[in-house]
Design a protein that fits this description.
This protein has 118 residues and is mainly alpha-helical. The chain has one domain. It has 4 helices and no strands. Helix 1 packs antiparallel against helix 2, helix 1 runs antiparallel to helix 4 and helix 2 packs antiparallel against helix 3. The two termini are 31 Å apart.
Length: 118
Amino acid sequence: MVTRRWLLGTPLPPDLADEGHAVVAYLRSDAPNDEKANRAFHFIYAVGEAALAYHFHQPLVRLGVGNVMRAAVDVAISVALAGMRGPMRRVLFGMSAEQLRSVADEIEFRLYPDPHGG
């Protein structure tokens, strides 16, 4: 019996989605590893920002949560993102060309069209 999996998706702005596809191609290129790691880092970080805003900040606005509470959530989001910067950079910059190609596979796996047609 196949069990249905549920996913929680994050829509990306068109420019970020385009960058995702470009990063996948770049990670598979012969560019220097440090340049590939840097580009991957900036894309992954931007996706994290977009996802946290979409799943946490934007619903609070739509639900009419007050400015003070939204600001508190925004500070927590900023702290979380700042905490990920260093370790994420160290991991990516420590990767081999083969590992960076695997990062391309992981990004590509997560980039898919809106199944709802929106």
